[in-house]
Amino acid sequence: MFAKSRLLIPGPTPVPESVAVAQAKPMINHRGKEFGRLYDTCLDGVKWLLQTKGDAYFLTCSGTGGLEAAIVNFFSPGDKVLNLTTGVFGRRWAKIAAAFGLQSDQLAVADGQAVNLDALRAELAKGGYKAVLVTHNETSTGVLNPIKDLAAIAREHGALVLVDAISSVGSTPLQVDDWGLDVVVAASQKSFYLPPGLAFITVSAKAWEAHANAKLPRFNWDLTQAKDFSAKSQTPWTPPVSLFFGLEEAFKLLRAEGLEAMHARHEMLMKATRAGVRALGLELLVKDEAAASRAVTSVCVPEGMTPAQIRQPMLEKFGIDLAGGQAELKDKVFRIGHLGYQDATDSLAVFGALELVLARAGRKVELGSAVKAVQQVLMESGY
Ligand SMILES: *Cc1c(COP(=O)(O)O)cnc(C)c1O
């Protein structure tokens, strides 16, 4: 049957029509005045979203390129770093560090748990760590890590704080300057209302000092180059000009909503999603609401069912594209994205459809119960 498509995976996320249209503009000279103006507007927007008055740069790549840039710019072979791994993305960053010859020690937790601050303190007390690398929002599990507290601990031990904020920026408060974050990486396809292809990286004064002494080879990701060209409102290499057109329009929409309202919307969607899951009689992977992601919720697949038995009819009958689990969670969970250009109507649609899909699969579901739970959260949120 005909069904409109609704993309509810944790990135890429839906692109608003005006942003898509803006990207269709004719090409311009990336060394010309018009691009310079565009660059400045987009840079202002990035600094606003990340709450920094410090340095920020654009990289042409998906998020992973940004994570690699954060390694090659600040370290030398053999440097010891502590990777806080709460899932697939934390482990990816540790793999990148190891690939470039760093000594990457990992402080890991069970799936669905956030970083434990006492364990972090104990590990850092062993000494020798040049930096702590952490994922703000672990997209594979739906865990939100306490970056502010964790950064304070890392600083006490003289370690740089590097944050993968790729899926948190926009959905979750993040104060790069006030929280003393040295390097923060974000990417266009999560909460920037943009397609994939552009990453963002911030650099603190302390990180620049590390950069000056860092011996790892670098060229495409060299932030000295980015800094030199940024002074001319340009990127060192040809930028994805169309994405900049889109980003300028996206910032109009994001600024019109405002930071606080944007964070409140994502918190409401997180609560609505968790309430809906409980009402369906399903289990949440992340039990502790304080550690629950504002961007994505992992739902445990009930006994006797596979994720495909839920995701396939959701897509085929209702056009709702939900994400599967990653790595060891592949057969255990499915994930509902609620980041970026998502609203309350999306949540109502998801749970109305999930009720039908589960009922058709023979699960005991009271039709309307999950939708009602979502509606109650919306009511309580004053929506
Ligand atoms: C999406 C994402 C990435 C980047 O993945 P890419 O596919 O390279 O864009 C990295 N970390 C987190 C936490 C993410 O959500």
Write the layout of secondary structure elements.
Elements: E1 6-7, H1 17-22, H2 33-50, E2 55-60, H3 63-72, E3 80-85, H4 88-99, E4 103-108, H5 117-125, E5 131-135, E6 137-138, E7 143-144, H6 147-156, E8 160-164, E9 183-187, H7 188-191, E10 198-203, H8 205-213, H9 223-230, H10 241-257, H11 259-279, E11 283-284, E12 296-300, H12 307-318, E13 320-321, E14 323-324, E15 333-337, H13 344-360, H14 369-380
Parallel strand pairs: 1-13, 3-4, 3-5, 5-8, 8-9
Antiparallel strand pairs: 2-10, 6-7, 9-10, 11-12, 12-15, 14-15
Helix pairs in contact: 2-10, 3-4, 5-6, 11-14, 12-13, 13-14
The structure holds pyridoxal-5'-phosphate (PLP).
Pyridoxal-5'-phosphate (PLP) is lined by residues 11, 62-64, 89, 135, 137, 139, 164, 166-167, 187.
3D architecture notes:
This protein is 43% helix and 16% strand. It contains 14 helices and 15 strands. Helix 5 (117-125) runs parallel beside helix 6, helix 11 (259-279) runs antiparallel to helix 14 and helix 13 (344-360) packs antiparallel against helix 14. Residues 11, 62-64, 89, 135, 137, 139, 164, 166-167, 187 line the site of pyridoxal-5'-phosphate.
Summarize this structure briefly.
The chain is α/β, with parallel strands linked by helices. Helix content is 43%, strand content 16%.
Give the termini distance in whole angstroms. Answer: 32 Å
Beta-strand content bin: 15-25%
Quote the average pLDDT: 97
- Determine the number of helices (DSSP H or I, runs of at least 4 residues): 14
Low-confidence stretches: none
Approximate shape: globular
Number of strands: 15
Order of helices and strands: EHHEHEHEHEEEHEEHEHHHHEEHEEEHH
Distinct ligands: pyridoxal-5'-phosphate
Strand order of the largest sheet: 2-10-9-8-5-3-4
What is the CA-atom radius of gyration, in angstroms? Answer: 21 Å
How would you sum up the major sheet? 7 strands, mixed
Structural class: alpha/beta
Helix content percent band: 40-55%
